[in-house]
Design a protein that fits this description.
binds (4S)-2,6-dioxohexahydropyrimidine-4-carboxylic acid, five-stranded antiparallel β-sheet, 16 helices, about 425 residues, binds zinc ion, alpha/beta
């Protein structure tokens, strides 16, 4: 059989470091099969799955069970996150042993209502994780700030989609980013700021990078391309944590990507059913929407429009995620795709995103009807086509592998080595043990 790639560009497959595939526990929303099929259609060859499944991934046994599910169903490669919570530092070794790509720390409440750790618990947890080299990804929103706001808004009877934005203003995220960066600076933990939604978060992120903190950040297409005007059109569908913000944030976020303050594009693919997204009470709408299969077309549209170069896109979609999580298929390799994880893309193909066409079980998103330029035509994972001519390839269910096996993270070192830090180190949990 011959294969003709005439007029296609061959890119490294995208690495989406932030998806929720809901398996196990919420498989009516998504599972590892439908989620990774969606990834394949989006030119995404590796995903990192979040731990807010049932039971929460916070111990070795739960993680092993999730690995069994993922390895039997996945069309593309994956990494699994584990939760770092209030009283979970004793679980860190067994979680690493069972094979994680990194830790997820929820500083603020969102879907799944995972208890958020105090600053003291975060300090201990960061100290525990730092010597392992694993990166801690943060949902950086602070509960105590936003819950007071939401209480006042609901008490005053607000039940419109924009009230969701009002309940979680940017300061909620800015405070959390700055606090997480300080804890990382003092412990030597490497951290990653998930779903950067405002221009204001770039200040503490940039400052921390300048101080030498090993801190990285991602933003998502909805924070770059949507704004307050989309709330009336989308109603509860647009509800996501952190919220889509005022459109004055769009340009600073694009600038942050272009100047390297923001390292990568992820999607926070967060599927829910139409019923769960369209409830009359705005406060009971489940937050988030699918994104893993629309990221590449949305971002390539901006390449076609001349906002940036295809090489910029590849840096944000594949090169930086691979570097930041140490995914080197071979020792000494510097580029992802060396193991033939590839997206074959028609950069000139104009088409319209339709929710009904999504592979995700969640066929409801803010992107329905949006015109895009750029189509992933085929997707290859480790040398094997999993999506060809916009169809799933037979017998690729279970082809996906966990990439924790190829992860190489260098040892991390605390920046502070003065007497104050020596006292902190002396009282680390493992020193006391
Ligand atoms: O809107 C969101 N949905 N934000 C999150 O952080 C979690 C996600 C989910 O799991 O639904
Ligand atoms: Zn989050
Ligand atoms: Zn998320």
């Amino acid at each position: 059989e011959t294969f003709d790639a005439t007029s296609l560009h061959i890119l490294p497959g995208a690495i989406d470091v932030h998806v929720h595939f809901r398996d196990p526990g919420y498989t009516h929303k998504e599972d590892f099969e439908s989620g990774t099929a969606a990834a394949a259609f989006g030119g995404v060859t590796t995903v990192f799955d979040m731990p807010n499944t049932i039971p929460t991934v916070a111990d070795g046994e739960t993680l092993k069970a999730k690995h069994a599910i993922a390895s039997s169903k996945a069309h593309v490669d994956y990494g699994l996150y584990a939760v770092l919570g209030e009283d979970t530092i004793d679980k860190v070794p067994e979680l690493i042993e069972a094979g994680i790509i990194g830790f997820k720390c929820y500083m603020g409440n969102t879907f799944g209502r995972i208890p958020t750790p105090s600053t003291g618990a975060m300090l201990e947890a960061f100290e525990m994780v730092a010597p392992t080299g694993k990166r801690i990804s943060l949902h950086a929103e602070t509960n105590s700030v936003m819950e007071r706001r939401q209480k006042r808004l609901t008490e005053s009877g607000r039940n419109d989609p924009l009230a969701h934005l009002a309940s979680r203003p940017a300061v909620v995220a800015v405070e959390a980013v700055a606090r997480a960066a300080i804890l990382a600076e003092w412990t030597g933990a490497r951290i990653h700021i998930l779903h950067i939604s405002s221009g204001a978060e770039l200040g503490p992120l940039r400052d921390a990078k300048a101080r030498g903190v090993d801190i990285t950040g991602e933003t998502c297409p909805h924070y770059l391309m949507l704004g307050e005007d989309d709330y009336a059109r989308c109603r509860g569908i647009i509800r996501v944590n952190p919220p889509v913000r005022e459109s004055v944030n769009n340009e600073p976020l694009w600038a942050g990507l272009l100047d390297g303050t923001i390292d990568m594009i992820a999607t926070d693919h967060a599927p829910h059913t139409p019923e769960e997204k369209t409830r009359a009470d705005i406060w009971s709408v489940d937050c988030g929407f699918p994104g893993v299969e629309t990221q590449m077309p949305l971002m390539l549209t901006q390449v076609a429009a001349g906002r940036y170069d295809i090489r910029d896109y590849v840096r944000w979609s594949a090169v930086n995620p691979a570097k930041v999580w140490g995914l080197y298929p071979k020792k000494g390799a510097i580029l992802p795709g060396a193991d033939a994880d590839l997206a074959f893309v028609d950069l000139n193909h104009a088409w319209t995103l339709r929710d009904a066409d999504l592979q995700s079980r969640s066929k409801i998103s803010p992107w329905d009807g949006r015109g895009v330029v750029g189509l992933p035509r085929h997707t290859m994972v480790r040398g094997r086509f999993v999506m060809k001519d916009r169809a799933l390839v037979a017998d690729t269910k279970g082809h996906g592998r966990s990439v924790h096996a190829i992860q190489q993270m260098p040892e991390a070192k605390p920046l502070h080595t003065d007497e104050t830090m020596a006292a902190v180190i002396a009282h680390r949990p493992e020193a006391a043990a």
